[in-house]
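Lab notebook page, bench 4
Experiment: in silico fold of construct C2
Operator: M.H.
Input chain length: 221 residues
Purpose: comparison with the prior construct
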Amino acid sequence: MRTWTDKEIANLDQVKRLHLINSITGIKPANLIATENPEGQCNLGIFSSVVHLGSQPALLGFVLRPSMNGNRHTYENIKSTGIYTINAVDQNCVDKAHYTSAPFDREACEFAEVGLNRKQYDGFDGIFVKESPIQIGMEFLQEIPIEANQTRLIVGEVKFVAIQDSSGAIDPINQLDLSKLNLSGISGLNRYYSFEHLAEFDQARVGEFPVNKKISLHLLN
């Protein structure tokens, strides 16, 4: 095992420290957050920090880092309208999704700049990424400042969900098989990965070691 103490981490070259700390948490879901200001100017940005916060009410959060170049378009749009969407990144679109991290001007619409398409639905006043297999309409609830590094946890409530079901990814109890949705994940700042369904278990009980149902079903077939 290669080891680093906290002092060694603090003394690392900035780029090496960024890559190390951004990678050690493993693969995170890759999502594009789409927003629009009251004037109709749209914004699209790649995020790897979307997390589940609760099911009743249905809450999701994501972390906004402090801007180094004054680009706060996602934050400003969410605060001005209260509406945003979270869009899972299809593996075929990782290059376009990553390109949204470039510092485009306020007047630029990342949809057009990177080659992705907008989509809208009746029943939710927000813009989605048409190419996304999972599209989530969100309403802003609160922001929680994290004083240690000047980031913000943005908390929103799920108001709309659209899922590509042509591949049979939704089972009878609405549990998703993410491996069938061609989703991508992020580790570090710029490395993208695919998902594979490795295992499936029943609820854990003391004295009963979990059995991988996925492997068991495969052996029966």
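Observations: The longest strand covers residues 134-146. The mean pLDDT is 90.
Next step: discuss at group meeting.
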